[in-house]
């Protein structure tokens, strides 16, 4: 512990009260500079008859190299793209993700986000779909 009552380590500062503050160089490539690498929540543009349910509109954001998608949508056909993930938010390879669908009860459904951008949904349920997933944009 330094004379100032805190210790600096490679990714942050541990204060004498035990709290930890993440810090970095402030450079855009610094993995600990989340503020520089984060975006606000942005509404997705739904396609193929998919619409927002209203409780939580479909949105995406990025923190560091992680993309987060949230929302509740309905009315689209199984096996179709609900939206296209923009460049810079896409995974390096296609991913299959578990999501929840509702039709008289909750059931597991499948979402597939393609490296080219399509976010496809497969479900046997006829109700709404709750999207709450995340992925990295790096390998």
Structure keywords:
globular; 0% helix; 9-stranded antiparallel β-sheet; 139 residues; mainly beta; 3-stranded antiparallel β-sheet
Can you offer a commentary on this structure?
By secondary structure, the protein is an all-beta fold. 0% of the residues lie in helices and 45% in strands. It has strands spanning 6-9, 12-15, 20-22, 42-43, 51-52, 59-63, 66-74, 80-84, 95-102, 106-113, 118-122, 129-136. The strands form two sheets. Strands 4, 5, 6, 7, 8, 9, 10, 11 and 12 form a nine-stranded antiparallel sheet that branches. Strands 1-2-3 form a three-stranded antiparallel sheet, with no helix packed on it.
Outline = globular
Specify the number of helices. 0
Q: Structural class of the helices, strands and pairings?
A: mainly beta
Bin the strand percentage.
Answer: over 45%
Q: Main beta sheet, described?
A: 9 strands, antiparallel
Query: Overall pLDDT, averaged?
Result: 84
The CA-CA distance between the termini, in Å, is 37 Å
Poorly predicted ranges: none
Q: Tally the beta strands.
A: 12
Portion in helices: under 10%
| N-to-C order of helices and strands | EEEEEEEEEEEE
Q: Radius of gyration, Cα only, in angstroms?
A: 19 Å
